[in-house]
Amino acid sequence: MNRPTVSTDEPSGGAAGAPSTETYCISCGESISADAEICPHCGVSQRRLPESGGPGRTADEKYCTNCGSVVNRDAELCPECGAEQTIGAGGEVDKLAAALIALFLGGLGIHKFYLGDNKMGVLYLCFFWTGIPAVLGIIEGIIYLTKSDEEFQRRYVKR
Questions:
Q1: Quick one: where is this thing mainly located (predicted)?
Q2: Are residues 40 and 82 both part of a single domain?
Q3: Which string of b and e fits 118-141 if b means at least 16 CB within 10 Å?
Q4: Do 32 and 104 share a structural domain?
């Protein structure tokens, strides 16, 4: 990822008259010192890709949802195109899918795994033979369908 640098003639604590090199934060786009490891404006790490590494990303980075540039995982805006980045592990969980899974496979706790609640999923699996998880699954499926999308995401999806 090529990041533009800006040379200024103002000294920055170094030798008088020596130009200082600045760059832009990979998250907020503010001008910062080229050797800064953390942006003083937003606090996001400025770890850079190796120059000879070629295309790709590390565990702390993701691709921009608009232009495909490599950006910091915590970035809210792409420094290349300015597009807002989605934050989260994998987006939203589909409410209808969760409700249908709960209605038809709720006795096995599959809907709990789908929602990210693995402990409850295992508990449902352990007691599926009693029939109680099946009844609870039907009730939960109906409840999921009655909630608004925002309330469903906030209340039932584990992140």
A1: membrane
A2: yes
A3: eebbeebbeebeeeebbebbeebb
A4: no
Look at residues 13, 7, 44, 11 and name the one whose alpha carbon lies nearest to residue 27: 44
The domain containing residue 63 runs over which residues?
A: 1-87
Higher pLDDT, 33 or 3: 33
User: Model pTM?
Assistant: 0.46
- CA-nearest of 34, 10, 31 to 21 is 34
The string of pLDDT tens digits covering residues 72-91 is: 877 778 888 888 776 544 55
- Two structure tokens written together for 104: 């038809």
Query: What is the DSSP secondary-structure string of 71-105?
Result: EETT-SB-TTT-PBPP-SSS-PPPHHHHHHHHHHH
* Same domain? 3 vs 58: yes
What's the rounded mean pLDDT across residues 124-153? Answer: 94
**Same domain, yes or no, for 52 and 109?**
no
For the chain, report the end-to-end CA distance as a whole number of angstroms: 30
